[in-house]
Amino acid sequence: MNVLVINCGSSSIKYQLYRMETEEVLSKGLVERIGSDRSIVHHTVNGREPWVETAEILDHRQGLYQVLALLTDPEKGVLEDAGDVDAVGHRVVHGGENFSSAVVIDQEVLRGIRQNVDLAPLHNPPNLSGIDAARHNLPHATHVAVFDTAFHQTMPDYAYMYPLPRVLYQKHRIRRYGFHGTSHQYVAERAAEFLGRPPEELKIISCHIGNGASCTAIEKGRSVDTTMGMTPLEGLMMGTRCGDIDPAIVPYVMGKEELTLAEVNSMMNKHSGLLGVSGISSDMREISEAAFNGDKYARLSLEMYTYRLRKAIGSYAAVMDGVDVLIFTAGVGENASLVREWTCRNLSYLGLELDQEKNADLPKGPQRISTDRSRVNVLVIPTDEELMIARETRRLVQQEEQG
Q1: 343 by DSSP, 3-state: which?
Q2: What is the spatial distance between Cα 237 and Cα 266, in angstroms, rounded to a whole number?
Q3: Rounded to an integer, what distance in angstroms lies between the CA atom of residue 25 and that of residue 181?
Q4: pLDDT of 364
Q5: Number of C-alpha atoms within 13 angstroms, CB side, residue 211?
Q6: Residue 208 annotated in ligand binding
Q7: 335 is in an annotated binding site
Q8: Range of lowest pLDDT (42-56, 228-242, 300-314)
Q9: Pairing mode, if any, of strands 2-9 and 12-19?
Q10: Which of 56, 173, 221, 234 could form a disulfide with 229 if both were Cys (CB 3.0 to 4.6 A apart)?
Q11: Given phi > 0 = left and psi -120 to 50 = alpha, else beta, which region is 47?
Q12: Which residues pair with 142 in a beta bridge?
C-alpha cells in the first residue's frame, strides 16, 4: 500500500510518500510560495540528488498536480502512475469536539472541519484546501483526516474546562483542546515498544519541545491532561510564545502601551518566549551558546524555560499519582542536552536519576538517558508525525476493506 501524507499551509504543501509494507519513505518534498509565479518545489527521492525547481503555482490544486507529476516522472519519480497512490493522509490541526480519532473523509467530515475554522482560522482553511486539491487530483484514493487535537479528546471534563461562566463553553466551545496530539501519541507508543511493556501499564509524561512546546500526561495509553489549551498559546514557555501568564496582564499592557487587540496578540505569539526574554533569538542553539558565553538574559531565558517545563512535569506526576516514563521529543527535546539536563534537576523526589554521559553523547534513534538505578525511565525518542498519520491512514483503509 502506498500512502501519501499531506500537510498544507496557507501557501505550502509538505508531502511524504510511504510504502506501508516496510514503512519506507519513498519520496518527500515541499511546495512553497503557492499563489506566486515564482513558487519553489523541493523534491527528494531516496538515493538521488534533491530536485529544486521554480514554477508558477497559483493554488493548492495546481501544487498537488505538480507533486504528482514529480512522483510519476520517469527520471525524478518513484511511481508509474498517480493511480498507484492508494490513500492520502491529511494533517488537520483542529477537530474540536467533533473528532476523537482519525476518520475517512466524506461530506459530513468536511462539514465538521469547517465548523472548527473559528478555532483554528490560520490552519483549518489551508487544511481544507489540501483536502480539496487531493480529492480532485486523486479521486480514486481513500482520503483520511488525522487531527492534532484528537488524541486529547480523552481528557476528563475537569481537566479541559476553564473556570469561566459555563455559558461561554455552551455558546462558543471555549475549553482546552490541546495540540501536538499526533506526536504525543507516536512517542508514547514508541516508548512502550522500546521498553517492551503494554501502554496500558505505563504512566507517561511526554515533552514535545520545539519552537512550539507542550507537555502531556498519558495514563494507560490515553491523554489525561496537556499544557496547551484552547489555542497553542497556553502552557509552556516556547520559542516566541509566552505560554501561561496572568490574564490581567493583557488589558494592563494594552492600556499602558496603547496596543490594539491584534498587536497584543502578536506580542504574545510572535515576540515573547525565548526571543522576548533573551532579546537574541527563538532558536535554542543560539540561546544555549549565548548563555555559555555569559549572556545573562540568554541564561535567564534558559532557566525560565526549563523551570516551567519542570513544573509541568511535577504537576503531571501529581495528576497521575506517579510517573514511569519521561519522554523528550521534537527539535529541542531531541537535540538540546543542556535543556534535558536542567529540566531533570530537582526531580530526584520522583526517583529520577539522569545519566550525564548518555545524555551528552546521544546516538540516533530511541535512547534511554536515565541510570539503571532510576525509577523513572527517561527517554529521548525522535518524533515522526508523518509516519503516525500514514499508520492511521492504513488502519482505516484496512478497516474499510474488511467491511
Answers
A1: helix
A2: 15
A3: 22
A4: 84
A5: 9
A6: yes
A7: yes
A8: 42-56
A9: antiparallel
A10: 234
A11: left
A12: 87
Q: Would you list the domain boundaries of the chain?
A: 2-147, 196-385
- Cβ–Cβ < 8 Å for 159, 172: no
Cα–Cα distance measured from residue 13 to residue 63, given in angstroms and rounded to the nearest whole number:
7
Q: Is 210 annotated as a binding residue?
A: yes
- pLDDT tens-place string over residues 239-284: 999 999 999 999 999 999 999 999 999 999 999 999 999 999 999 9
Is 357 one of the annotated binding-site residues? no
**CB contact set of 363 (below 8 Å; sequence gap of 6+):** none
Q: Is 148 noted as a catalytic residue in this protein? A: yes
Q: Which residues pair with 87 in a beta bridge?
A: 3, 142
**CATH class for the domain made up of 196-385:** alpha beta
The DSSP call for residue 74 is: T
Choosing from 59, 118, 148, 321, the catalytic residue is 148
Q: Which candidate, 290, 279, 264, 152, places its Cα nearest to that of 208?
A: 152
List CB contacts of 157: < 8 A, sequence separation 6 or more.
Answer: none
Superfamily of domain 2-147: ATPase, nucleotide binding domain (3.30.420.40)
The pLDDT tens digits of the residues spanning 194-205 come to 999 999 999 999
